[in-house]
Amino acid sequence: MKEEILIEVKGLKKGYKKRKTKEWVQAVNNVSFTVKRGEILGLLGPNGAGKTTTIKMICGLIVPDEGEVVINGITMQKNRLKGLEHISAVLEGNRNLYWRLTARENLEYFAGNRGKSRKEKMGEIEKLLSEFKLKQKENELVSNLSRGMQQKLALAVALLADSDVILLDEPTLGLDIETGYEVRQLLKKISEAGKTIIISTHDMPVVQDLCERTVIINNGKVIADEKVEELMNLFETSAYVLTLGNELTEQQQKELDAKFPINELLDGGKLTITLEQDNDIYDLMDLLKKENTIIEKIDRTTIDFEEVFMNLIQEEKNHAIHSIN
Amino acid sequence: MPFIQLIKANTRMEFIEMKRYLPNTLSMIATVYIIFLGMLLGINVIGDPAQAEANIQHLIVNYIFWYLTLMTLSNIGFTITMEATRGTLEQLYMSPLGMWKILLSRLIGYIALHGVIVIGLLYLSMATANQWLYLKPDITLTILLITLVGIVGVGFMIAGASVIFKQIQAFMQILQFILAALAFVPLSVAPILILAPFVKGVDMIRHVMIQGYSWTDFTAMDYTALIANSLLYLLIGIFFYLKCEKIAMSRGLLGNY
User: Which of these, A159, A153, A35, lies nearest to A96 by C-alpha position?
Assistant: First the structure.
């Protein structure tokens, strides 16, 4: 069965002039990707990479200079309000709520803002308050709730919209470990309900736990668009830890840096290295053999998504430097 | 009807906020009551006794209009600024009903609540001062409501400026003097002001309250001018707001404060 594409992001470009220096910044440069119905996509990138601008262009809050976003067949740039029937979002976490209203009043207000009556949404509001463990605090002002509870409430507000797509910008930002875990579990539950989700985040456990696929953006460009599992495999099979019996010579270190830029010499003679191709292992062996470096042990590393992300960003930087040179 | 739900939700929101910020609401009520009372009692003392009743009627009509206009106009701009500061503005823009409808329903709620309070206070102060003004609620309220439609239009223009610039307090200060001039200058003195927002409405209500005009005393031209003026300002206001919204979205200004 053909999987239905729900979101198409086509060649988005957005640039700004910096207020003080008047310098032109290309925040997003030809970003394209698609998201299938029911898929959870992680949108990653360092600070200033263009993630939030991309998310806001998907919701139609920022108009792109070029390109378009199509959601469920509706072009956001042509019919934004119709498109918004399919989207809800948590853009600024707990700041998306009215702090002088109670948890329940917030849910009721945002339901009304989408044209739904309190009566119509009563059952769903009750269910969400219970599921998100907010029932006991339903009549508390949001300003009196903990940050974690506020974040959960913001998620509940987005869910109440009953849209096909949910966009989450940094849903676990600023949460302690326990609440972060709790929010992750809730996101898992939401994903199991068949929603299509785009999560922009720095929180790698969120990506590893929830996302099936990830789009990594750096300097406004997509540098990777792969399934999380495939990215993990790619880096897992090419990352090694070598325990060396003697130190590398200066010449060896230079050659190593030139041929295998992602390497790190750790205490105890341990060398972690990422190889781009499987055959590179022979070149590495040759390089070590030249100075009779003793190899005591070779292990393939277990890698987490944070390292995958860092490797990709590093590769992109190296590539940029090579292009300049 | 989604729009009815939107109005209900936003009216309830305005009511809850009035309750949550109770000291502010109470001081607003006290201020308006004292002003009405002051006008009802004071004019008798300060003004010419022969002209006292006409003076009071004139002053109170002008004051109510000035107050409602200022409240309406500053509310819509203030809403945008507040929402941007809180971080909820972009969330409101995620509504498939459109932000202009949310703003309109906020205003409807705001005007309804404040209208009830102001009219209630007017009757309360008349009872306190035992000075009963010549009010004809049917015609006065109808003209007032039609006039407010035009004021809402001007409010949308201010909202549009707020979406782009966010801080418009200085402009609002100047505006209140312009509004006072429009509310207090009779149309007979400057007929050109018929083109300005709400001036025709104030003039007609003055005729009702001071000269005792009824429905039939006004010509079809009067009603046409009143309705056309209000509708025109509403349409121009919404058009201007949507244009500003487009500019803010293409410059990425919605989330900025």
Answer: A153
For an interface test with A, give the residue of B94, B103, B106, B246 to mutate (most A CBs within 10 A).
B94
Residue B247 within a domain: yes
Pairing of strands A270-274, A221-227: unpaired
Q: Is A11 helix (H, G, I), strand (E, B) or coil?
A: strand
A284 inside domain: yes
The neighbour count for residue B223, using CB atoms within 10 Å, is 16
**Quick count: other Cβ atoms within 10 Å of Cβ A32?**
13
Residue A227 in any domain: the answer is no
Distance CA A184, CA A132 (A): 12
Per CB-CB distance under 8 Å, the chain A contacts of B6 are: 112-113, 115
Among B64, B156, B50, B147, smallest CA distance to B102 is for B156
In a domain, A225, yes or no: no
* Sole residue written with tokens 């005007």: B111
Given a contact cutoff of 8 angstroms between Cβ atoms, the answer to whether B173 and B99 are in contact is no
Closest CA to B176 of B153, B203, B158, B149: B158
Q: Give the closest of A14, A87, A113 to B6, CB-based.
A: A113
Domain match, A247 and A305 both: yes
* Predicted complex: ipTM over 0.90: no
Q: Could you read off the pLDDT of B58-88 as tens digits, one per residue?
A: 777 777 777 878 888 888 888 888 888 888 9
Closest partner residue to B94 among A62, A84, A117, by Cβ? A84
pLDDT band at A167 (very low <50, low <70, confident <90, very high): very high
pLDDT in tens, B204-255: 988 887 788 889 999 999 999 999 999 999 999 999 999 999 999 998 888 7
Between A56, A96, A100, which is nearest B87 by CB?
Answer: A96
Please indicate, yes or no, if residue B256 is contained in any of the structural domains: no
Q: CA separation (Å) from B62 to A1, A96, B36, B68, B210?
A: 71, 40, 12, 10, 12
Residue span of the structural domain in which A245 resides:
233-324
Inter-residue contact A157 to A110 (CB < 8 Å): yes
When mean pLDDT is compared across A160-174, B4-18, B94-108, the lowest value belongs to: A160-174
Same domain, A66 and A145: no
Distance between CA atoms of B59 and B131, rounded to whole angstroms? Answer: 14
